[in-house]
Amino acid sequence: MILPIVAYGAAVLRKVAADITPDYPGLEQLIADMWETMYASNGVGLAAPQINKDIRLFVMDSAQIFDNQDEDEENNYPDAPGTKKVFINAHIKKLNGKDWAYNEGCLSIPNIREDVNRPEEVELEYMDEHFVKHTETFNGITARIILHEYDHIEGKLFIDYLKPLRRKMLQGKLNDISKGKSKVSYKMIYIK
């Protein structure tokens, strides 16, 4: 089932999400719905707060970025051909490498894209959808998507990385998003 995406301005997007246990009600269906919602919205990642659930859960599929690259696009990312994973109760262990800029967007903040600097590599401890514990290092585009989605479960948004003047310049657009005045091709909900 395709779920509505929570728009910028909702309190759930600013809340630190809680760990869950394997008996979380309807978890298997929730994960399936998150995949369906993410793909239907043309996203590469989706965190539970974006569907109004304050739990530490996100899904991501960086393979889509590589699959959709033009043949002439330069591919200097070490994580090709990408990764598709479910992350439950994720916690960052370590960040490594230099910060690098990439133009990011967010399903909860439609029609705004900005360059964001993030580290090259992240070491993450998480559970998969079967509650098997992993400690794994990710890099490249995959690391970037993970860090973006991880921010969601920490109550942060990509616009928090922007310089104050740039944020101020975007405030009108952000206000419009929170009031439902932004056109999107997917279902959004506007809550406070």
UniProtKB/TrEMBL annotation:
Q: The organism sits in which domain of life?
A: Bacteria
Q: What EC number(s) does its UniProt record assign?
A: 3.5.1.88
Q: Does the keyword Ribosomal protein feature in the UniProt annotation?
A: no
Question: Pfam family example for this protein?
Answer: Pep_deformylase
Q: In its UniProt record, which GO terms are filed under biological process?
A: translation
Major enzyme class: hydrolase
Textual note on the cofactor = Binds 1 Fe(2+) ion.
The question of whether Iron is a record keyword is answered with: yes
- List, alphabetically, the InterPro entries matched: Peptide_deformylase, Peptide_deformylase_sf
- The active-site annotation reads E149
GO molecular function ontology, one term from the record: peptide deformylase activity
Keywords, sorted A to Z: Hydrolase, Iron, Metal-binding, Protein biosynthesis
Catalytic activity, reaction form: N-terminal N-formyl-L-methionyl-[peptide] + H2O = N-terminal L-methionyl-[peptide] + formate
Which cofactors go with this protein? Fe(2+)
Q: Where does Fe cation bind?
A: C106, H148, H152
Q: Give the protein family.
A: Belongs to the polypeptide deformylase family.
Q: What does this protein do?
A: Removes the formyl group from the N-terminal Met of newly synthesized proteins. Requires at least a dipeptide for an efficient rate of reaction. N-terminal L-methionine is a prerequisite for activity but the enzyme has broad specificity at other positions.
Alphabetized NCBIfam families for the sequence: pept_deformyl (TIGR00079), PRK00150.1-3 (NF001159)
User: By what name is this protein known?
Assistant: Peptide deformylase
Top-down, what is the taxonomic lineage of the species of origin? Answer: Bacteria, Pseudomonadati, Bacteroidota, Chitinophagia, Chitinophagales
Tell me what gene encodes this.
Answer: def
